[in-house]
Amino acid sequence: MDGNLFHISEEVRSALGEGRAVVALESTVISHGLPRPQNLETARRLEQAVREGGAVPATVAVLGGRLCVGLEESQLARLAEGEGVRKVSRRDLGLAVARGEDGATTVAGTLWIASRAGLKVFATGGVGGVHRGQLPDISADLPELARTPMTVVCSGAKSVLDLPATREWLETHGVCVLGFGCDEMPAFYTRRSGLPVDARVDTAEEVARVARARDALGLEAALVVTVPVPEGFEVDEQVMEESLSEALSVAAARGVTGRELTPFLLAHMSWRSRGATLRANVALLENNARVAADIAVALNDE
Length: 302
Ligand code: PSU
Ligand code: MN
Prior knowledge:
Elements: E1 6-8, H1 10-17, E2 22-25, H2 28-33, H3 38-52, E3 56-63, E4 66-69, H4 73-81, E5 85-88, H5 93-98, E6 102-105, H6 107-116, E7 121-123, H7 141-146, E8 151-154, H8 163-172, E9 176-180, E10 199-201, H9 204-217, E11 223-226, H10 237-254, H11 261-272, H12 276-300
Parallel strand pairs: 1-4, 2-3, 2-7, 5-6, 7-8, 8-11, 9-10, 9-11
Antiparallel strand pairs: 3-4, 3-6
Helix pairs in contact: 3-4, 3-12, 9-12, 10-11
Bound molecules: pseudouridine-5'-monophosphate and manganese (II) ion (MN).
């Protein structure tokens, strides 16, 4: 790890040095996934949820071309402002560093940076996956999950994606998918997808045991721990389907593709569902941060 390219915050550095629990958080959700002002409030709440769980939060981003792990309040605000912040997936890392840019890291970008900084647990909302439609648009999140031995807590993949194809991709590439208190992989806004997880677990300790065994075997893939959106925040199935199909057809009509697609679909669905998808998104993010903190603490209890 090159010290000039990375900037690990004082707090995260000492937590890692003392073997305390640390949870990585991504930043694309702040800059590109949620609207203002909920994005900054949510970013703060996620850090708070990790702390309440007894772990140190490490939000990851690229700032002025440096790979940052653990941000200050002013840096979170800069990302939430969103002006000139690139969405940084794996392919963008070199570009953002070379140009000294600000970048919000996706799941793929965050996995790459956090694992190199020595972090083991990462909480997010939903991972990217195989998109619906003609072009095979496959998020770089998937291959990054296949080659990064971290534990990733999420609510499955967004139902804007082709979930069966995403589930198959993970299986083919050796990524184990656990259900935290569930037997089916959640579908982000809803608690069920009809797709089975590899195993159900009910405690953070069980997750920690699987992660340790994976490490002992030298398997390189992430362990994906899926957690359903909290009851009461689930989006009504019909509202979801309607807002999604409209978002997909508007995106196709306007020719929205590539890095723009996920943010566009999320924003359109939130508008169309009168904020129901946004409320679900914030609730599941916070819940996942809590679960990730418990897992990080359990991983350290040996
Ligand atoms: N889930 C959300 N909001 C988001 C994302 C996921 O609720 O903004 C982001 C994540 O950062 C994920 C990225 O890594 O979308 C995937 O984008 P793409 O399909 O372009 O790889
Ligand atoms: Mn894509």
